[in-house]
Amino acid sequence: MRAGVIVGEAKRRRDKGEMPYQQPQPKGWPSRVDKGRALAAFVRCSQSAPTTPKHPLSERVEDFCGRLSSSPPVLLQLTETTENYKAGFCHANVLHQVKHHGGHQVYGWMIWEGTNFVEAEFHSVWQSGENSELLDITPRIDGEFEVLFLPDPTTRLTRVGEVDYGIANRTDIPECPYTAARQPYPTPTYPMDYSLDREMIVEMRRLGFSKLSQAIGLDAFD
Fold first, then answer.
1. Which residues pair with 150 in a beta bridge?
2. How far is residue 7 from each of residues 3, 95, 127, 160, 187, measured CA to CA in Å?
3. Which residues of the chain have pLDDT under 70?
4. Is the separation of the CB atoms in 143 and 133 below 8 Å?
5. CB proximity list for 19: less than 8 A, separation 6 or greater
6. Using one digit for the tens of pLDDT, what is the confidence trace for 182-212?
7. What are phi and psi of 146, to 5 degrees?
8. Cα–Cα distance, 201 to 210 (Å, whole number)
9. Which of 213, 91, 108, 222 is nearest to 159 (CA)?
């Protein structure tokens, strides 16, 4: 394919909103950041491990949630299931639950608060019916039993060509608005390659997904 054709196709997809970094960004979050400054700011602010914010929520947490979504945050306890779902697989877990038990996948953010910063981690929970309560069916890696979940119907995982993209964590650190794998990240989305992670491959196959795009809901189940 000629270079001009490639550029033209990229522009067409960008104009349609298909490029991962063209996702609508909440006000105040840039499309790219200076990685060096982000690293310095992250090291400075993230000396303590963030945890579920205490109630009543601080003004800092409330303001941060308001920047991400117009929905109100809710405290969710872990809901045990018979499926033996694993921590860190929330999107696949919820889609598996929907496939076998009905209901809906609800995207949003788990909100974490540290001593000097607030962070939002993209997350999925399950809703058994249209007006049913939200249920968090995915165990936490850190073992927390209760989390603050902020529904966000405007944001979802992205696929461009054959590459699947995750949503980077958001923070309220001005110089470091994005993190991925607990490190500063320069853009709001990041490419995911589950084929490099044996544990991920095994768990996806156990849940019946043959490829990542099924597990994050971008392709049909079957």
1. 109
2. 6, 35, 41, 15, 21
3. 1-24, 221-222
4. no
5. 10, 13, 160
6. 899 999 998 888 788 888 899 999 999 988 8
7. -130, 135
8. 9
9. 213
Contact 191, 56 (CB under 8 A): no
- Which distant-in-sequence residues (6+ apart) come within 8 Å of 3 by Cβ? none
pLDDT in tens, 50-80: 999 999 999 999 999 999 999 999 999 999 9
213: tokens are: 């795009």
Q: Six-digit token pair at 33?
A: 């950041």
Q: 199: part of which helix (H) or strand (E)?
A: helix 198-207
Q: How far apart are CA 120 and CA 99, in angstroms?
A: 27
CB 105 within 8 A of CB 98: yes
- Residues in CB range of 90: below 8 A, 6 or more apart: 123, 124, 125, 138
Q: Tokens 């209760």 correspond to what residue?
A: 146
- 3-class state of residue 141 by DSSP: coil
- Structure token pair of residue 106: 């609800």
Q: Read off the amino acid at residue 164.
A: D
Q: What does the block give as tokens for 68?
A: 């991400």
Residue 109: name the closest of 149, 142, 52 by CA.
149
Determine the distance from the C-alpha atom of residue 187 to the mean position of all C-alpha atoms in its chain, rounded to a whole number: 14
Do residues 179 and 42 lie in contact, with contact meaning Cβ atoms separated by under 8 Å?
Answer: yes
* Residue pointed to by tokens 């809703």: 127
**What are 63's two structure tokens?**
């303001």
